[in-house]
């Protein structure tokens, strides 16, 4: 296969390795058998088994004591940690996220767009409620999250617009699954300047997302998650005002995006 943008042929074995690792990562804590992986990837068991054994030997895939169940290995964690440790934007955003969470006593997230998903790179939890798991490293559909919608709205009507996938699998009864309704919501987000996730991703939570415009198009965003039970109009205004101030502070401190229009 040749990529039209570069004219460079892709390496099939490398592509298959990446597909396998992403599949295992997407299963989170659910190990998979060789048959399941073979069927999901459409690959012969014999060649896939040889690939898996190589990845097990190098720590990218782990197996149970029977050698029949496979899951993501510790080397993936080490690579992901390096990504977080060396990211210049996360380094700038993290102190602001911590301060904002302390000020509002709400949960603040920092995430990055990955195709049609939002990847959580940092989270500072509220002291009033703690999730039983960490959001960092998790990937959720961009069209159902405040951070994702804030970034997708920035791309409307541009060459970078992300097509709305069909069908959209609802995560809650409030998830917007109608294509026209979702587009109207993104248009409203662009006019308003921030996105609202009204229990669309997680029941009982309302979330406000703000795109960080230090790159063009914006790829990063921050959000604030608030329990519906504690939300009032006054509280919403307080949160939006505080989030807007933090967005501007992060954007002012961010490195210049040399890929933006006007830079050579």
UniProtKB/TrEMBL annotation:
Do you know which Gene3D superfamilies this protein is assigned to? Answer: 3.30.450.40, Winged helix-like DNA-binding domain superfamily/Winged helix DNA-binding domain
What range does the record give for the signal peptide? none
- From the UniProt record, give one GO term of the biological process aspect: glycerol metabolic process
Where does the record place the HTH iclR-type domain?
11-74
GO molecular-function terms, A-Z? DNA binding; DNA-binding transcription factor activity
Q: Which keywords describe this protein according to UniProt?
A: DNA-binding, Glycerol metabolism, Transcription, Transcription regulation
Tell me one Pfam family matched here.
HTH_IclR
Top-rank taxon of the source lineage equals Bacteria
Describe the location of the IclR-ED domain by residue ranges: 75-256
What this protein is reported to do is described as: May be an activator protein for the gylABX operon.
Classification via PANTHER family: HELIX-TURN-HELIX TRANSCRIPTIONAL REGULATOR, ICLR FAMILY, HTH-TYPE TRANSCRIPTIONAL REPRESSOR ALLR
Q: What is this protein called?
A: Glycerol operon regulatory protein
Source organism: Nonomuraea polychroma
């Amino acid at each position: 296969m040749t990529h039209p943008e570069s004219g460079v042929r892709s390496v099939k074995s490398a592509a298959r390795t990446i597909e396998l690792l992403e599949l295992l990562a997407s299963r989170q804590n659910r190990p998979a058998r060789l048959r399941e992986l073979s069927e999901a990837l459409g690959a012969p068991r014999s060649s896939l088994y040889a690939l898996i054994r190589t990845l097990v030997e190098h720590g990218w895939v782990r197996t149970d004591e029977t050698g029949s169940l496979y899951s993501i290995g510790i080397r993936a964690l080490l690579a992901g940690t390096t990504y977080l440790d060396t990211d210049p934007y996360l380094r700038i955003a993290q102190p602001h996220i911590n301060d904002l969470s302390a000020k509002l006593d709400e949960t603040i997230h920092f995430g990055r767009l990955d195709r049609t998903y939002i990847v959580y790179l940092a989270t500072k939890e509220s002291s009033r409620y703690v999730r039983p798991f960490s959001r960092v490293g998790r990937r959720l559909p961009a069209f159902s999250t405040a951070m994702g919608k804030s970034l997708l709205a920035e791309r409307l009507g541009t060459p970078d617009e992300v097509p709305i996938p069909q069908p959209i699998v609802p995560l809650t009864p409030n998830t917007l699954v109608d294509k026209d309704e979702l587009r109207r919501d993104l248009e409203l987000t662009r006019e308003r300047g921030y996105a609202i996730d009204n229990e669309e991703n997680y029941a009982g939570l309302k979330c406000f997302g703000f795109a960080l415009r230090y790159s063009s198009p914006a790829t990063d965003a921050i959000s604030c998650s608030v329990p519906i039970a504690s939300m009032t109009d006054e509280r919403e205004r307080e949160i939006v005002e505080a989030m807007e101030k933090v967005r501007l502070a992060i954007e002012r401190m961010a490195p210049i995006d040399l890929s933006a229009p006007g830079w050579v």
